[in-house]
Amino acid sequence: MKMEASQIEKLEKMQKRYEELHRLLSDPRVARDRNLLEKYSRESGKLEEPLSLWQRYRTLQEEMGKLKEILADEKEEKDIKKLAREEEENLKKDLEGLEQKLAKVLTPQDPYLQRNVIMEIRAGTGGDEAALFAADLYKMYNRFGGKKSWKMENMDLHATPRGGIKEVIFAIEGKDVFETLRFESGVHRVQRVPVTESSGRIHTSTVTVAVLP
């Protein structure tokens, strides 16, 4: 897989725009305009990932060029050439991986997938144990959202006396929220010995999850 000329041209335009945005963000007039400042900051942030990959790609290409010079030099020692060939294979794999990542970030994304979501978690079959399972899922999504730096806000929550959750509705805002969580919708099941079970029997409990963009 090789970078296409159109992809390289697009990245070069991104680089020019990124530099222009940094000049704009350092302009005192922009700093005083909150709307412009937020607009340019968001645009600049979106360009950082592809340009970081592009910089890494160009660096590896330069290293590949140096290795090819070593391999083409008839006077170079055999041991050095052997090491150069091994390094060349590693660089090829790294370059292929970067080409795939660049192709992905340069492909226009469905704006629908970039939406924020409202998530609903409802305890289903299983009584108190289902409510405890719902609480476990709620905590899990909150921890996951925290790692993603998403903003989580409860809209409605009905807890049970034993620390479970009968139903909770909460909003999640952040980068790629719907794209990441869209397949979480559905019925979730767990088989385990409930903390409320004294005889050690395994129970099956269910919880329904809905992800609404």
From TrEMBL:
Signal peptide start-end: none
Domain Peptide chain release factor positions: 69-184
Isomerase is among the record's keywords: no
UniProt feature coiled coil, ranges: 57-101
Membrane-crossing segments per the record: none
Pfam families to which the protein is assigned, alphabetical: PCRF (PF03462)
UniProt cross-references to SMART domains, sorted A to Z: PCRF
One GO-annotated biological process of the protein: translational termination
Keyword ATP-binding part of the UniProt annotation: no
Alphabetic keyword roster: Coiled coil, Methylation, Protein biosynthesis
Entry function: Peptide chain release factor 1 directs the termination of translation in response to the peptide chain termination codons UAG and UAA.
Family assignment from sequence similarity: Belongs to the prokaryotic/mitochondrial release factor family.
The protein's name: PCRF domain-containing protein
Naturally occurring in which organism (per UniProt): Aerophobetes bacterium
